[in-house]
Amino acid sequence: MSFSPLVDRLLESLRVLPGVGPKSAQRMALHLLERDRPGGERLAAILAQALAEVGYCRRCRTLTEAELCELCRSSRRDERLLCIVESPADMLAIEEAGGYRGQYFVLHGHLSPLDGIGPEDIGLDQLESRLSEGEIDEIILATNPTVEGEATAHYIAAQLEDRDIRLSRLAYGVPMGGELEYVDGGTLSRAFNGRLPFSSV
Amino acid sequence: MSFSPLVDRLLESLRVLPGVGPKSAQRMALHLLERDRPGGERLAAILAQALAEVGYCRRCRTLTEAELCELCRSSRRDERLLCIVESPADMLAIEEAGGYRGQYFVLHGHLSPLDGIGPEDIGLDQLESRLSEGEIDEIILATNPTVEGEATAHYIAAQLEDRDIRLSRLAYGVPMGGELEYVDGGTLSRAFNGRLPFSSV
Q1: Count of C-beta atoms within a 10 Å radius of residue A52
Q2: Are B61 and B48 found together in one domain?
Q3: Is residue A1's pLDDT more than 70?
């Protein structure tokens, strides 16, 4: 129910945005129509342009409108380190945390035989040719700490066995700033099993 | 910081949406680019179309792409009742509550001399000509229960004094389903002053 068929269609199409229900869609549509038409026009134009032009980096498969993303073009990144992540969002999170200065490779998902997602669907053939360029010393398998992410990491590790590349994964443990009381059991056991000498902390 | 200038511009332009901060903008952009390009394209197209075509109803000033909105064209609404609201969102809220079967008039704001918003800016000249059509018995002043909304309602009431039209406003009182403990003092005093004989409840 609304004012007009076109506004109704706008409300409905705003619902494709994650986390946007009927109430937020209404608030957004009315805000743009009543208070910020130039902002809305800019959003419509840039969204259309981004969807038409943004593809995947030829080298690391992250999202970019260029052939190579800014990170792959940068001369200030360590060419010998490669971090494999499931999604561009993971890559962004690692970049925002700072500290990592190597390269990336984005799988855009994880292996999931039941859903028909195999090695090619997550770009592992492309990873092979990336590695054949031959300058990488270490690969950090930074897939999600979920059953599927772990399985994917193990699969990739098995594929790379014959190569002279060091493999590592992110450390498991209790998250910083959290309270032990609220940490789940699986994480707690991992943190106990991986305990370190106090001096190294 | 992101992957590419175009994705950065998309993140930035999503921030025009109310309630969308950097994190949600990122989630939305990645969702559309990674998982729902057709939905994103539909959103871009309909948003552009709505911004270009949706204007104001000639009669009630609500948002519509037609000359008259669906409500003004409907033959099933009571022509003798007119409800004046500040925004299309208020009109929607009243429609969703159900029960009201009259017409509307949308001010798109309230009087605010300090911001230079005078009677013409909220369409009061148009309201005059709307009333000159001469079929309205009662006007319900449903501006917001705020200082500005009340002032606007009083101004409109003064303008209409000479006409043979009954004026009313929404009842003030405690909201249904609330707990008295959490109702603000102003609302509580209003509810006390407006108390009704128990039998009428």
Answers
A1: 13
A2: no
A3: no
